[in-house]
Amino acid sequence: MKTFRKKICLLGHYSVGKTSLTRRFVEDRFDENYLSTIGIHISKQSLVLKDKDMEVELLIWDLAGGERFADVGPYYLRGAVGALVVCDLTDARSSWEMPYHASQLREVNKDAHFVFVGNKSDLTDQIVVSLDDIRRLSADFGGQALLASAKDGSNVSEAFAMLVAQMYR
Question: CB neighbours of 169 closer than 8 A, spacing ≥ 6?
Answer without folding.
Answer: none
